[in-house]
Structures are given as structure tokens and as C-alpha cells.
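queue> pop job 88
queue> type: inverse folding (structure -> sequence)
queue> payload:
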């Protein structure tokens, strides 16, 4: 009986090696693409969460300051809000290229990074001028706004 040369082989042929390397390369490339896409999604979500946190911080401070204010100063405009309390102290919000800056008595909260760029409007609602502020801002193509009312001359 004659033995065939390939009956005792212990390794891989060149063709098997090339095919297995090709399959491994495809799996590796697909895994790398999945990893990169996942990292991009995570980065976008972190930026979105940071922006949402900044919006929440700004609105919390604004609500508190507006509710304790007695009036909105006449010099307020679309990029500057000045609130005057019953004791005569002022709190100002100034929109800057970096975001919004709060100037005035120290807030109870640590100073947040307010990267939101709000616009302030002062509509007359029910004949009440200087008692209402509409705060609006854009976020990834969506517009948001909130209307805040001064209450009971600074008392809740």
C-alpha cells in the first residue's frame, strides 16, 4: 500500500493560513469599527449630558433669583438681565461668548459652568411690565424657552 504524502501532515497549508488570516482580519476590522462608533456615541452623550446639566443649573439659579426679585431693572436687554430685590441688591445675568455669567450675591450653590447662551425677553403679560422674563436658548437645532414670573414682590 502506498501512502499519500498529505495523510501525515501536522500543519496548515498555505491556502488555509491565508483564508484564516483573511477571516481574522475582517473580524478585527469590524470589531474596531464597532469600538470607534461606540466611543463616538459615548462622547456625544457626555457632551449632551454636560449641556443638560448646564441648562438645569442655569434654570435653577434663574428661578430662585427671579422668584426672590422685586423687579426687573429697565436697563435689561436680550443679553443682559438685572434683577433687583426688595433690599436693593442686584443680581445680573450677562450672556458672553463662553456662556452666561451670574454677577451678584453669592448663590447657595457652587458656581456652575453655565455654557448655555440664553436670550432674555420681557413680555408684557396681563398688563404687567417688568415682572416677567422669558428665557430662551437653542440646543442642537431645537429651541427651548421658559417664562418666569416675579412673585409677590419677592415673597413666595
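queue> result:
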Amino acid at each position: 500500500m502506498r501512502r499519500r504524502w498529505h495523510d501525515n501532515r501536522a500543519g496548515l497549508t498555505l491556502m488555509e493560513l491565508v483564508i484564516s488570516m483573511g477571516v481574522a482580519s475582517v473580524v478585527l476590522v469590524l470589531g474596531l469599527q464597532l469600538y470607534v462608533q461606540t466611543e463616538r456615541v459615548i462622547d456625544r452623550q457626555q457632551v449632551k449630558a454636560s449641556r443638560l446639566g448646564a441648562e438645569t443649573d442655569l434654570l435653577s439659579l434663574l428661578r430662585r433669583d427671579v422668584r426672590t426679585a422685586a423687579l426687573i431693572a429697565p436697563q435689561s436687554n436680550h443679553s443682559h438681565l438685572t434683577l433687583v430685590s426688595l433690599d436693593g441688591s442686584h443680581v445680573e445675568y450677562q450672556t458672553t461668548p463662553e456662556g452666561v455669567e451670574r454677577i451678584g450675591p453669592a448663590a447657595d450653590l457652587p458656581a456652575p459652568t453655565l455654557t448655555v447662551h440664553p436670550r432674555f425677553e420681557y413680555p408684557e403679560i396681563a398688563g404687567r411690565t417688568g415682572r416677567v422674563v422669558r428665557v430662551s436658548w437653542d440646543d442642537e437645532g431645537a429651541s427651548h424657552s421658559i417664562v418666569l414670573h416675579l412673585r409677590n414682590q419677592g415673597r413666595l
